[in-house]
Amino acid sequence: MTLHQTLTQHIQKAVEELFPISIEKVEFQATRKDFEGDITVVVFPLVKALKGNPVEIGNQIGNYLVANVNEVAKFNVVGGFLNIVISDAFYVEFFNTIKNNETFGFVAPKEGEKAVMVEYSSPNTNKPLHLGHIRNNLLGYSVAEILKASGKKVYKTQIINDRGIHICKSMLAWQKFGNGQTPASTGLKGDKLVGNFYVEFDKQYKKEISELIAQGKTEDEAKKLAPSILEAQQMLLDWENGKPEVIELWKTMNQWVYDGFAETYKNLGVDFDSYYYESKTYLLGKEVVQFGLEKGIFEKDPDGSVWIDLTADGLDRKIVLRSDGTAVYMTQDIGTAIQRVKDFSDVGGMVYTVGNEQDYHFKVLFLILKKLGFDWADSLYHLSYGMVELPSGKMKSREGTVVDADDLMAEMTTTAQTISEELGKLDGYSEEEKAVLFKTIGLGALKYYMLKVDPKKQMMFNPEESVDFAGNTGPFIQYTYARIQSILRKADFDTSISISGLELHEKEKELIKQVQLFPDVIQNAADNHSPALIANYTYDLVKEFNSFYQQVSILGEENHDKKVFRVQLSKSVGNTIKNAFQLLGIQVPERM
Length: 592
Hints:
CATH architecture of the domain at 412-583: Orthogonal Bundle
CATH class of the domain at 412-583: Mainly Alpha
Radius of gyration: 29 Å
Low-confidence stretches: 394-400
Largest sheet: 5 strands, parallel
Distance between the termini: 37 Å
Helix content: 40-55%
Mean pLDDT: 93
Structural class: alpha/beta
Number of strands: 14
Number of helices: 23
Shape: globular
CATH superfamily of the domain at 412-583: Isoleucyl-tRNA Synthetase, Domain 1
CATH topology of the domain at 412-583: Isoleucyl-tRNA Synthetase, Domain 1
């Protein structure tokens, strides 16, 4: 039972005996630094029910707690706030119960509880992954890991956008300008090779537009009449009609891209349990449209198109089937969601990691699924996130000005190497060990910088700022973890024994309190789908440890019990850092 739960029960009992009246909820907050106390009860919400002065109510409850609760040492009341001082014995006893628990804070899934499916990445097969995909992947992967740690069964998935005019543009450009190039013949990753031809198509297309405008066409006319776009549209028709040579080229070039993506995912440290492909799902949902028509949820217009009217819900009319019977993205997403529940019968909710430009789309999708009567539609969540930019500005895939994910990861590793070598802390490392360390620091810097920002916020990514060994950065936290491992290696005595009866130093107490928060932080991060809560908690924990490290002697402590306890406390902090970073997909080095 947590301290909050214990105190809640005792305060509820105190109110029943003192006033007498029953209360359901007790509001806690951290005690302000300028007051004595470990935890504060907000008395104001009780005033209306108890009909009294908040200071008097606080004093009565405080006196009751001191007299009846072993954990409460003393108290003070400031205005409507009851500041409670918890006994050292409570913190020591709590620490002894968790010090050997390497997964403290993690909750195992409950038997029979519905699973959550988290979708992320969802790239197009006409270009490599870029900086925006990195934020998407890191958010989706981290939220999946946090949900798992909070006690949920989780499936990670993605839908690959492998069909459409944009895919045909790369294919057409390869036919025209590729001269039979392959990833093997060029030494390029397949996704990069295909992406180059997507850029090449755009150059040719723009050239044709300019020529047509020079011949007297308007810009709109030129865009529609350019030979390249007409050929790409014909290729899409050929694909939809199953023309063998088009399908064969499509399969070949897509496989190049899949192989390239797999390499990037491995380097980034993300994975998936299942894959869905738009080429297989784009017709899903058509049956559901017929069902919706029969139930009166959808309506057919005179031209044969099918719509849903959501104006009564504050939205608008949304098309779900074109007049020619072809599906739109909404139809596909409806069908895919239903298919996923069929494929994974224990799925009871889904998280979609998609940029905030699709906020409206997901409002409509979730509402349609609710109106269609799917009970799991109440457990759908759009993990909406802001765009990520560099100091140099926005990126454009067609023009080849995106920041390539592989290049960025390589750059982060190089930056980590440069800074590490300047700091001169690499004595005794082999070249192989250095390479692993530089990658660990570089990727840690990248991931932490991306994830410490609230997902909903647009962010500016500054590579050099992220690889800083001071401040709220991944390397700073990794360095603290490595420092703790150094302490543990130097501790040449038995640290497995349990120590009790200690009078705690203020810094020891503060550190235990910070560790104690970890389970609640995980649950809160899961409820809010926010890795930023884990990241910033970890930074606070590290700051608290460094303050402890600077003010309290650990290995130099003369009292044996205190020395053992402080080493154990350091170990527990290190384990918490490691587990928190695991939820962010970040590795921690044993030495740095």
